[in-house]
Amino acid sequence: MPEGHTIHRLANRHNRVLRGERLRASSPQGRFTAGAALIDGRALVRAEGYGKHLLYDIEGSSTLHVHLGLYGTFREVVQPAPGPVGLVRLRWEGTQTCHDLRGPTACELLEPDAVRRLVARLGPDPLRRDADPERAWSALRSRRIPIAAALMDQSVLAGVGNVYRAELLFVHGIDPFLSSRELRRADFDALWSSAVTMLRAGVRSGRIVTTEPTDRALRGRAVGADAHYVYRRTGLPCRRCGTGVRRAEMAGRNLYWCPSCQAS
DNA sequence: GGCTTATGCGCAG
DNA sequence: TGCGCCTAAGCCA
User: Fold this and answer.
1) Strand partners, A93
2) Gap between the terminal Cα atoms of chain A
3) How does pLDDT run along chain A (264 residues), one tens digit per residue?
4) How far, in Å, is the CA of A216 from the C1' of nucleotide C6?
5) Nucleotides of B under 7 A from a protein CB
């Protein structure tokens, strides 16, 4: 769900089915009534993903900014759509499809200045063609926090969340407690390259599957925890060495790692 | 059907 | 550091 891959997948989807059309907008829940009225009947020029943020360029209006947070979801149904169920912050409708946004952290209209400020505080997004990995590298060098915390910091790297950070560090055998400024350049290059690959795979499939088929307990389709090396596998044997996967809390989030494969 | 947990993040203190 | 947001999947019965 909502790490960068979800956001870019939604942006792609919305560009495909909503772009160019005059869209009806409403807020059945009532928390975005004024904003919805401002974009109602206007055309979507372009949807864009930036890290975990969705930005919608609306013709003749401000930019619609959506952040799903932990709970937010966008659900699409074919028209004619049934009446909204539950707390729908934004219902956005084209002729063919209807999109219901529930539980977002942010759903607001932003002026160009605010959009620039938002983007300015984000690090490079591995899913964007304009991403400059050097910015992430220098951000890591200038900090003195565990690499596992740095990868979650959206001003260092935009789009990576708790699942990808655990899997990225495992795949490259990096100790999550290593100081960000001690990270070797070769390891950074490998991390960045894998982030691009993993996130792109997530955009295609809509799920986070990081394990290679040869590393999976079951052949073929990755199911549940089978899709990951260490994320949410506390106590289970590491797929590479058999050591029990460990869990610790870091900055209020669960961190998972193999103490044997990821030792400094 | 109910309970637990969560892929995020801003804010109070 | 801990809380609040307030959806939905996964698990159990």
Assistant:
1) A24, A98
2) 31
3) 689 999 999 999 999 999 989 999 999 999 999 999 999 999 999 999 999 999 999 999 999 999 999 999 999 999 999 999 889 999 999 999 999 999 999 999 999 999 999 999 999 999 999 999 999 999 999 999 999 999 999 999 999 999 999 999 999 999 999 999 999 999 999 999 999 999 999 999 998 989 887 776 554 556 666 789 999 999 999 999 999 999 999 988 999 999 999 998
4) 35
5) 6-10
Residue with tokens 């655990």: A166
Extract the tokens encoding A130. Answer: 């304009």
Q: Which two tokens stand for residue A248?
A: 């610790």
Predicted TM-score (pTM) of this structure: 0.95
The reply to whether A104 belongs to the active site is: no
Q: pLDDT of A35-57, one tens digit each?
A: 999 999 999 999 999 999 999 99
Report which residue type is found at A176.
P
Question: Catalytic annotation on A52?
Answer: yes
Distance in angstroms, CA of A95 to C1' of B8?
32
Collect all residues with Cβ–Cβ distance below 8 Å to A26 and sequence separation of at least 6: A33, A36, A40, A90, A91
Confirm whether A3 is a catalytic residue.
yes
Q: Which nucleotide across the nucleic acid strands is nearest to A162, CA versus C1'?
A: B7
Chain C positions with any atom < 7 A from a protein CB: 1-3, 5-8, 10-11
A2 catalytic per annotation:
yes
Is residue A253 exposed (0-12), middle (13-18) or buried (19+ Cβ within 10 Å)? middle
Specify whether the CB–CB gap between A228 and A163 falls below 8 A: yes
For residue A254, say whether its CB is under 7 Å from any atom of strand B: yes
Instruction: Give nearest nucleotide to A254 (CA–C1').
Output: B6
Q: How far is the CA of A219 from the C1' of B12 (A)?
A: 49
